[in-house]
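Marked as duplicate of an earlier ticket. Keeping the data here for the record.
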Amino acid sequence: MMKDNKYNKFLTFLTNCRRVLSCYLYQFFELLAVKNYFFNRVLTQIRRIYYVKAVKIVDVKSTDKVLFIGSGILPSQCIIIAEETGANVLGIDNSKKAVDLSIKYIDKIGLSDKVYIKHGDGAKIPAKDFDAVFIAINVWPINNILNNLAKNLKKDARILYKSYNDDISQILENENLNNVFEVKDKIVNPLSQSNLLIKK
């Protein structure tokens, strides 16, 4: 039993390490995108392909309150969700610099009435009022964020998390969150996948 617990902690550590590395990679590409029109168009179009599908399986409505954890420097996912659904979207990021840059970007493109960006931590945000929560592939520590949502999210809320190799399923099991959440749907992409979670 002790050996299994150490192994599970090690798997969680590896998952969070992979997320940290991807965080820095995404920040690099997003910084290029806010400074260069070409990179912006490419990154936004790639994300649009995925997030149009994501919005459909999460069934986001214009009246929903949407939270996006890990909105980054270029909050294109938040923008796409707002454009596709008419919903108001709150993007949070734990990097103050990313938040400052993304607020400037949202103001520049004139979407500050639909997309709000704040400095915050997904492991601590009071999530009880949100109908839909999207979790970026590069947020960490993911186990703390999932535990916060398990405790504070309302019963009928939907969560879409993006992961590599479905590594989050192992964390759900390790953290005993399989008793709280069930996977309702899935999107498989070439390099990642996303699962739609609902509370049981």
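See parent ticket for discussion. The two ends are 27 Å apart (CA to CA).
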